Request: fold
Amino acid sequence: MQAYGWSSHWEAQFRQVATSGQPGRVMAEHRDRFVVRTAVGEQWARVAGRLRHGAQSRVDLPAVGDWVVVQGDPDGTASIAALLPRRSVFVRRAAGDEAVEQVVGANIDVVWIVTALGRDVNPRRVERYLALAWESGARPVVVLTKADLSPDPSTDLQRLHEVAVGIPVHLASAMRGDGLDELKRYLTPEVTVALLGSSGVGKSTLVNALAGEEVLATASVRTDGKGRHTTTSRQLVPLPGGGVLLDTPGMRELGLWEAGQGVSQTFADVEALSVNCRFRDCRHRGEPGCAVTAAVENGTLDASRLDAYHKLRAELAYLASKVDPALSREREHQARVEHRRYRKILKRKRMDG
Ligand code: GDP
Ligand code: ZN
Reply:
């Protein structure tokens, strides 16, 4: 179990939470069943009724990376009775129109935001990943892969440095082996590192290169066209020198989910500037004395970065109104009240006039 990140921390958590059963870590999820690794090996387990009924949302249910209490049931099957308190949880908005959350992984210490050299490099997408990574409680890092594709990666590196405020950007090539030693430094015992990024950027290849063997199927052997998740392959990969890699399915769109704190950390540069805005509630949309728009005008802040900041904030506000309909009804009511008052004022003005 040590190989999967078990430590005295989890031991203590287990003692507090469990009255019976044994500890295990969720390796993979398949519909309503989970592959759980315990001291005696891997087994399938379902969520116990009590845990399911007590869950307020999907976030309260097991996810890959969770440490759980596994119970053997009288009929010979196993069930997950409880989750040990998480150290972090990476949540995104699930694809689709409905505002529902999806847990990408739990108990992640470090997130590698993986992007491939060339066309894949997209500062706006990296900002999204960063916001969710910060919000999760993990420490984000940016990894630029396929370094072998260009003799001069400096332009791509520069674009990433501009959005990776205060965090490292690593250049790597799984193909040639560049940068792997640097990445291996993150992989120390008890640490879980999750790889996030679009499909095809080279996450599986990187995992295999770091593990020193073919533990994950890469694109070239995934012939079903749907990726590696048709078979229930394990998402957690223990490394020979310690540390665990958590592989995630490639994500086409990364919707934000309650990430106010994460957006603030991602845009620490913008928020630092805003301290000098004249108005405390400045929205940085051209108000007088706005230090943020001034920075755009004098060229110290990229206009597209400020635009991205506004967009992510707006997305969060919209999400909040969808998730909390009571709140949005209240806002609509307020808007109607305002509107009526405004019309009254107009009417009076007209009569006065
Ligand atoms: P994933 O979907 O992110 O897991 O991506 P894969 O690991 O399956 O890789 C996608 C494609 O990129 C495969 O064809 C790999 O051979 C290729 N690839 C992965 N790493 C590198 C690299 O460092 N350099 C180059 N040139 N190609 C790579
Ligand atoms: Zn301002």
